[in-house]
Amino acid sequence: MDTCWCPMERKKFDCYERRINCNLRGRFTLLKILIAGDSFAAEWPGNNGWAKLLAGKEQKIKEHDVTNIAQAGVGEYKILDQLRGQTLDDYDAIIVSHTSLSRVHTRNHPLHNEGLHKDCDLIWSDIEKRNTFLNPSLKAAKGYFEHHYDDRYYQTIYSLLRKEINQLLQGKVYISMSHIEVARMFIYEDHHLDFSEWWSKNKGTENHYSKVGNQTVHKIIVDTLNKLC
User: Is residue 54, in this structure, part of any structural domain at all?
Assistant: First the structure.
């Protein structure tokens, strides 16, 4: 019996076939990649974000087959939820951009309900100076931060969620990334990219990076994929 046509073997063969499909530069191409995470990975307006560069959306030749489910402004729980909603075995590599430690989960944001940030969670810097007049939901959110928010508690929750994501992706080609300095305390992944220093010097309007900043992030991710795949 030709076992390569069994569903499981056929899938393995397809994955292998994609990985040996090299371009003239000798780099592996056409990997099926899943991107999850926060606004540092989400699809922004414009063409210079590293995630769009990875997909080759502005090039004549498609670079990779990218599925991007990242959501701007979300906490780590929603990132875990993004991954749980996917058939992870369908992908050759998974990239996760981890978020801020201090986001408070909410199903309904008091300010953002459409556009890029329609799924976002609460963070104090976003609501601190907002007027709560005629917005009882915003008033309640500000009251929680002012009277009940406990940073140590949210660091613990964040740590547990990072570990849960890492466990979920065991056995996968998984590239973890973060962009803020405090997240360095919570690195549990085998292949983590810390961009906190790079971002501090290259802030911009797409994925929070400048054009050059995005190009460098893209290059580092591509180099890492080439080593792992």
Answer: yes
Residue 18 has a pLDDT of 52
The alpha carbon of 32 is separated from its chain's Cα centroid by a whole number of angstroms, namely 15
List the one residue out of 140, 154, 179 whose CA is nearest residue 50.
Answer: 179
Q: What is the pLDDT of residues 89-140, one digit of tens each?
A: 999 999 999 999 999 999 999 999 999 999 999 999 999 999 999 999 999 9
- Whether residue 13 is contained in a domain is answered as no
Sign for the CA dihedral angle at 181, 53, 218, 85 comes to positive
Note down the domain range covering 179. Answer: 31-228
Count of domains in the chain? 1
Q: Taking the model in full, what pTM does it have?
A: 0.86
Residue 117 lies in a domain: yes
Question: What is d(CA 105, CA 6) in angstroms, rounded to the nearest whole number?
Answer: 43
Phi (first) and psi of residue 206, to 5 degrees: -125, 120
Length of the chain, in residues: 229
pLDDT, one tens digit per residue, over 42-59 is 999 999 999 999 998 666
Residue 3 belongs to a domain: no
* The two structure tokens encoding residue 143: 């009251």
Nearest C-alpha neighbor of 73 from the set 35, 105, 120: 120
CA atoms within 13 A on the CB side of 155: 9
